[in-house]
């Protein structure tokens, strides 16, 4: 009974989204994105796309999202919002933090990103444009991934504060403001 109700609710939600989607105009960016995606598939292997494409997207998005916070910390007006008022920022600390970030991204995260290709192959995740999920499915999946990642990050961070491992592993994280 409960499974039947949840299937009916999901079906209703799917139909509602499809109905609303029918009133939306066509996305003018869809064709250029489709052309770029198909060009990428024609000129690169799945391994290159999954590994190096993921790395490029990760690095560009990470550092672009960090720019506002980096700039704001050096604006005097924004200092009143700083959590650690007693620890001023310096260019030397920022450079050291940047070097540590680059090390972590290329020597810790890149090996993990290299597993993306094998993950997509194991779970049979398609690369073809025609097989991609609809926009609302992607939005729901991105939201779900954000919730899972945030919860994982929170609990792992709490675990890293345990007295037996803090001074060996996690203390470096608290070196930076």
From TrEMBL:
InterPro entries: Sterol_Desaturase_Related. It comes from the Eukaryota. Keywords: Membrane, Monooxygenase, Oxidoreductase, Transmembrane, Transmembrane helix. One of its GO terms (molecular function) is monooxygenase activity. The chain crosses the membrane at residues 60-79, 100-120, 135-156. This is MSMO1 monooxygenase. It comes from Thalassarche chlororhynchos.
């Amino acid at each position: 009974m409960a499974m039947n109700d949840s299937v009916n609710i999901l079906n209703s939600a799917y139909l509602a989204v499809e109905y609303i989607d029918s009133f939306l105009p066509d996305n003018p960016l869809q064709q250029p994105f489709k052309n770029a995606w198909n060009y990428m598939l024609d000129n690169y292997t799945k391994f290159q796309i999954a590994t190096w494409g993921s790395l490029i997207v990760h690095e560009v998005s990470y550092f672009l999202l960090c720019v506002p916070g980096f700039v704001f910390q050096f604006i005097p007006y924004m200092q009143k919002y700083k959590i650690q008022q007693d620890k001023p920022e310096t260019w030397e600390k920022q450079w050291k933090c940047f070097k540590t970030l680059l090390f972590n991204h290329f020597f810790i995260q890149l090996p993990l990103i290299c597993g993306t290709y094998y993950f997509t192959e194991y779970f049979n995740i398609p690369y073809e444009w025609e097989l991609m999920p609809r926009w609302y499915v992607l939005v729901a999946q991105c939201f779900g991934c954000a919730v899972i990642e945030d919860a994982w990050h929170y609990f792992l961070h709490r675990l890293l504060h345990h007295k037996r491992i803090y001074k060996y592993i996690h203390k470096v994280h608290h070196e930076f403001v």
